[in-house]
Write a structure and sequence with these properties.
Strand content: over 45%
Radius of gyration: 17 Å
Structural class: mainly beta
Number of helices: 2
Largest sheet: 4 strands, antiparallel
Helix content: under 10%
Distance between the termini: 7 Å
Amino acid sequence: MLEHIKVVNQNYHMQGFTSGGGFVYFSFTDSLVKTTPAGTVKCQAEVFGGHLGDIDYYGGKIYGSYLGNALPGHAWDDWTCFKIYVFDASDLRVLNVINMDICDEYKRISGTPADTRGFSGIDGVAFGREPGTGAQKMFVACAMITGEKYENQILLQCTPEGKYEKEYHIRTGNTVYGIQNLDYDESSGEFWFSTYGKGAPYQPEETLYCVGPQLDGVKAKYHFSSPYGFECLGGGRYYASLQDGVNGHRTGTAYLCDAAFFENRYTEQQLAALVEGE
């Protein structure tokens, strides 16, 4: 059995997790859950009207990406807004909602002659060091369409207060919906991100990526599934993710592993058996 934390009975699937201040936090599509390291739920907050995504802990707060639901009759991913929700880590009340103005602009020009990349949305959120200066910044991941779908990942660098500063383009080749989870390894200075797994013959086998401190390209990639959450704990230790159940009764799991574990090409079914010690 692998050491793990499990959250049960959620409406929709797990989007990410993070830890800080002696607690672990899990985001699901419409909820945020706070647990002890042993998995005891301390409190839960509901998020309405949209899609809560990946989260990160910083300065006693939880930062989560948020996509407003599409209007009636629109495609499911025709998001109406792009925001960062800021929660108090102690009781999960909403402290602030940051509008991602740069993403509003991306959507406005998406697919026009002025911009052929095609903005998709945001998901991964991580606090890390700015290349060259070491200043603490908030990084938000978004996917752009260039030829093959979601092959060019963009990390938006913002101040901790959410003001856009600049962006980094990371070419991965085709992915499934782009970055789902983003995290920063304080011990190595590396950024890590995960994507969904292969669902069509033209899509890649690799779904976990490591990017160096300069954010200038992929350093390593793995055929390893962790699309529902990924966290760097430092010193070569990580929390990877699994989920099961159906909508209305979703279960999300964060399990402890090391980098050598990523070399194993386990299926999600095999990973679930390892976590449970079967």
